[in-house]
Amino acid sequence: MSAQNTKTTVREKYGEAARRAAKGQKSSCCGTTACGGDGGHESGCGCDPITSNLYPESATSTLPEQAVLASLGCGNPTALAELHEGEVVLDLGSGGGIDVLLSAKRVGPAGKAYGLDMTDEMLALARENQHKAGAENVEFLKGEIEAIPLPDNSVDVVISNCVINLSTDKRQALAEAFRVLKPGGRFAVSDVVIRGELPPDVRSSMELWVGCVAGALTEGEYEDRLREAGFLEIGIEPTRIYELADAAAFLDGTGLDTESIASEVAGRVMGAFVRARKPLNQE
Ligand SMILES: C[S@@+](CC[C@H](N)C(=O)[O-])C[C@H]1O[C@@H](n2cnc3c(N)ncnc32)[C@H](O)[C@@H]1O
User: Fold this and answer.
1) pLDDT digits over 101-152, tens only?
2) Going by CA atoms, what residue is nearest to atom 2 of ligand 1?
3) Which of 28, 107, 127, 130 lies in the 20 to 30 Å Cα band around 195?
4) pLDDT tens readout for residues 207-232
């Protein structure tokens, strides 16, 4: 499939996920398993090993319900990122806005949290969630992470939650993150990362690309791409390793032979926190 077709499929799937969340239904696009019936009204969607139970109740209890239902990440980047009052944060692929709203609280009224997403339905949902939360230091931008609509050297921290794996041009997405960061700025991203090799059938599954697995970089590739973009102080820290039952869950419904493939996938796919820094002397 061409990069443009892949992007169109990603946009359609996440548009659908946004429509479900707007109706009060949980989606599980990041991770491909259906949540049973019409999606129910679960807050954790326990059947999805990638997106379930990422945030403590204390973090989500003050957010609009639709923002929590639309959560399709694979980590909790704002819990691991260093964020200070007055800083500017940019969330790449902000979805329903959960991490933007959490960041906005951390940077306070003197700071600003931007969300960037290419899917209209997600942007509409995120703006509604912003309105419900009464967050004034937030702005959602339409655009692609490969062409960020912000000036050079304008952001203190780039966060993201399970989006870079979906990009068809990760070099360009990382180069753009580097460009918009101020000198010394931080890259603090949750993403799916691969340890070892995945079976070719998994890599070529569009269902698993949209589900945040097939397009994921290996640890070594991630480090290399970040270094090529100019970043320093690169670190990749696993936050959740998907074992056999998890692998079977996200392979289910993809048309692949789950029984034979799950054991080759188990332990090789992980949610990870990826950090790096733009050098201080780099404009
Ligand atoms: C897996 S969801 C994650 C959403 C959000 N970060 C979260 O944690 O709930 C992926 C989001 O990234 C957006 N997205 C995917 N590829 C993108 C791209 N190349 N540029 C901008 N947004 C993109 C999708 O529209 C979707 O909202």
Assistant:
1) 999 999 999 999 999 999 999 999 999 999 999 999 999 999 999 999 999 9
2) 72
3) 28
4) 999 999 999 999 999 999 999 999 99
265 lines ligand 1 (CB under 6 A): no
3-state secondary structure string across the chain:
CCHHHHHHHHHHHHHHHHHHHHCCCCCCCCCCCCCCCCCCCCCCCCCCCCCCCCCCHHHHCCCCHHHHHCCCCCCCHHHHCCCCCCCEEEEECCCCCHHHHHHHHHHCCCCEEEEEECCHHHHHHHHHHHHHHCCCCEEEEECECCECCCCCCCEEEEEEECCHHHCCCHHHHHHHHHHHEEEEEEEEEEEEEECCCCCHHHHCCHHHHHCCCCCCCEHHHHHHHHHHHCCEEEEEEEEEEECHHHHHHHHCCCCCCHHHHHHHHCCCEEEEEEEEECCCCCC
Q: 268 to each of 2, 47, 164, 175, 238, how far by Cα in Å?
A: 26, 19, 18, 27, 11
155 vs 114: CA distance, rounded Å:
9
Model-level pTM? 0.94
The pLDDT value recorded for residue 32 is: 53
For residue 52 and ligand 1, the question of a CB distance below 6 A is answered with no
- Side chain identity, residue 116: L
Instruction: Measure 29 CA to ligand 1 centroid, in angstroms.
Output: 10
Cα within 13 Å of Cα(42), Cβ side: 17
Report pLDDT for 45: 39
